[in-house]
Amino acid sequence: MRFRPGLIASLLAVALVVAVGGGAWWWQREERAKDAAAEAAVGAYVAGWKAKDMSTVAFAEEGAAADFAAAIAGLGAAPVTVSASPVERVGSSATSRLSVTWTLPGERPWSYAVPVTAVDRSGTWVIAAPADSSRWHPQLPPGATLAVEKVTPERGDLLDGGGAALMPMSAVYPVQIDPARATPESAAGLESVTGEPAGSLVAKLAAAKAAGSQAPIPVITYRQADFDARRAQLDALVGVIYPKTMAPLALSRSFGQPLLGTFGDVTAEMVTKGNGRYAAGDRAGLSGLQRQYDSVLGGSPGLRVITSTGKVLFEEKAVDGADVATTLSPAVQAAAEQALAGTGSVPSAMVVVSVPTGEVLAAANSPADGFDRALTGHYAPGSGFKIATTQALLTRGLTTLDAPVGCPATITVDGKSFRNFEGGEQAEATFARDFAISCNTAFISLATGLSPDDLTQSATSLGIGGSWTDRIGVDGTFAGSVPATTPGTDQAAASIGQGRIEVSPLAMAVLAGAVARGASMAPTLVKAGPGAGPAATEPLDPGVVASLRTLMRSVVTEGSGTALRDAPGGEVFGKTGTAEYGTDSPPRTRAWFVGYQGDIAFAVLVEDGRSGGSVAAPIARAFLDAYRAAPTAPAPE
Q1: Which strand (E) or helix (H) includes residue 186?
Q2: Which of 211, 221, 614, 627 has a CB 3.0–4.6 Å from the CB of 335, allowing a cystine?
Q3: Is residue 223 part of a domain?
Q4: Which residues of 100-127 are buried (b: 16+ CB within 10 A; e: fewer)?
Q5: What is the DSSP letter of 544?
Q6: Whether the Cβ atoms of residue 568 and residue 626 lie closer than 8 Å to each other
């Protein structure tokens, strides 16, 4: 076959185009494959970050995965989010930029960028190390590690009414057993020093050793003076440690407790429910006002990320805590606690309020390690409530002070027999005399003329059952409850402070303060509490108030409260109370005294006592003896 020259040239041109086109297609395919391989390497790297595990990532150097694990171990369980910028490849090298965000404790984000270089090593794309820094942070030196440090803020103080710290930060020594070093002999010696039960610490040490635990075993925390007295003995015990730390401390272990509260290592429950505020090993308020206002007193902890070489990579400053001001008076509180010491092991409480301001000056409890019965207790007030009943009777015109009202030994209402305490009886008596000797039967006979709401309204006007619990600033405070009565036994029991009526010692002190000033006023304890500020007053009927004062004075001069007749500081006005409770026969009784002197009003409760006159009134007298003798006590009005 004979080919023409033009045809041959055309065929050669076509062949060349096909060859060139095929080569270009092959080249583009190879480039796309390299792009994909580089992107896959960076993608695997991002996945390793997110999983906090680089064991499946290809690196240019050995040991990178282990280095990553060591570097971030100090960040704990902090989650991390990572994203990569588009990968840009040039030849056998590709670059990207990671955006890294760690969510540190307290939901604090720590964000930074990390440059990434991937290189082709014999067909495998691997992540190369930066020339002069770690892969894990641009400012982290090679081989260095990261750690999170909590920055503890300065804690605020609980302040007394004069602005001084009630619980200033002071040195304490938590005595602990180091299970790695302690011996059974040293544990037994520590039992002797601390007063722990024989064998108890030895058993705890044995259990720790058996479990392989290295955690110190807490035993007791000493104040400076208590620690100094035992220092030599503790020093002689192998494996007993006592790291000095600081904690808010009151004047004594019992002062202001349980109201002021305690401070120490947070519990597991606090960590769980704290929304990130607490972590294991933190110290915070555990009870009382220290717990309730911990977020105010404790401030906001700071946080920083630091390298093993000491370089700070991230820091959020701590916000120091603020003080929480109260109305408490150390002198009044101390006198109240001293008076309650006379009740021994029988639980008791005393509340003192300022007549002019309504401020709570003392809220004392015995024992100090129980609940705050002074503010949160629910008790029948017994005859102390007759102050409110009397106001209702006088307001309704059902009696006068001079009206003859007999005081039989018993009275029966709807088949139920009510008696006077210890069977007291006076056939001929005035209402004033009935009040002075606290005659139950006289009050029950008069109460039949009251309407269902009369006692509720009278109590409310004197502060019992009012809506001031939020204002006081202490969780769980009980203002009292005086339900409307039903005719018959319910109304009879209510008139003498029994039945369904409940009060706290604080509520009864508020009642006494209302009579003293001639007006009701909501109490205050935490000055920054809800509704804080000057309290409004609601004036009482002046004529009724004058009569109540006369009657309350007669209780002290000639009635059931004569223990206070010659108390220092001036005239005392008050009312005794004996409230029956329980199912024993005869019933057990709680003892009350409520009253005022000059610029202070107070209520005393003893949970088990024969009578208000024989048990509670002497405690009120002991309080006035101690308080009026104190150098800081004000002159009586």
Answers
A1: helix 184-194
A2: 627
A3: yes
A4: bebbbbeebebebebebbbbbeeeebbb
A5: H
A6: no
Q: Which pLDDT belongs to residue 9?
A: 59
Report the number of secondary-structure helices (H) and strands (E) in the chain: 19, 25
Q: Specify the number of domains making up the chain.
A: 3
Distance CA 477, CA 54 (A): 56
Residue 635 lies in a domain: no
Nearest-10 Cα torsion for 591, 597, 599, 604: -10
246 and 337 belong to one structural domain: no
Decide which of 577 and 280 is more confident. 577
| Beta strand segments in 2-145, E | 80-84, 88-90, 93-104, 108-121, 124-128
Helix segments in 462-559, DSSP class H: 469-472, 489-495, 505-517, 542-558
pLDDT at position 192 over 50: yes
Strand-pairing partners, residue 149, are 304
**Shared-domain flag, residues 357 and 499:** yes
Residue 539 to residue 528: CA distance in whole angstroms: 26
Q: How far apart, in whole angstroms, are the C-alpha atoms of residue 576 and residue 508?
A: 11
With contact defined as beta carbons under 8 Å apart, do 458 and 452 qualify? Answer: no
Rounded to 5 degrees, φ, ψ at 324 are -120, 115
Tokens of 270: 């606090």
CATH number at residue 121: 3.10.450.50
Residue 410 domain-assigned?
no
d(Cα 358, Cα 631) in Å, to the nearest integer?
Answer: 23
CA 165 from centroid of its chain's CA atoms = 18
Sign of CA dihedral 456, 460, 465, 467: positive
Both tokens of 56, joined, read: 């499946």
Quick one: 172 and 232 in the same domain?
yes
Cβ atoms within 10 Å of 165's Cβ, excluding its own: 16
Q: Strand 324-325 and strand 158-159: pairing?
A: parallel
Strand order in the sheet with 302-307: 146-151, 302-307, 312-316
Tens-digit pLDDT profile for residues 77-97: 999 999 999 999 999 999 999
CATH number for the domain spanning 218: value is: 3.90.1310
Does residue 176 share a domain with residue 242?
yes
Q: What are 36's two structure tokens?
A: 């994909």
Whole-angstrom Cα distance, residue 33 to residue 38?
Answer: 9
Q: Domain boundary residue among 144, 169, 196?
A: 144
Percent of the chain with pLDDT over 70: 93
One domain for residues 471 and 516: yes
Give the Å distances, CA to CA, from 359 to 322, 353, 427, 510, 513: 21, 5, 43, 10, 10
Type of residue found at 536: A
595 and 488 in a common domain: yes
What's the DSSP call for residue 370?
Answer: S
For residue 6, the surrounding DSSP H or E stretch is: helix 5-51
Residues 494 and 518 in one domain: yes
pLDDT tens per residue across span 477-524: 999 999 999 999 999 999 999 999 999 999 999 999 999 999 999 999
Q: Cα dihedral sign for 422, 423, 425, 430?
A: positive
Distance (Å, whole) CA 505 – CA 365: 10
The rounded radius of gyration (Å) of the Cα atoms in the chain is: 39
Where a domain ends, among 117, 144, 171? Answer: 144
Query: Torsion angle of alpha carbons 377, 441, 412, 424, nearest 10°?
Result: 100
Residue 226, domain extent: 158-325
- Are residue 91 and residue 117 in the same domain, yes or no? yes
Residue 361 domain-assigned (yes or no): yes
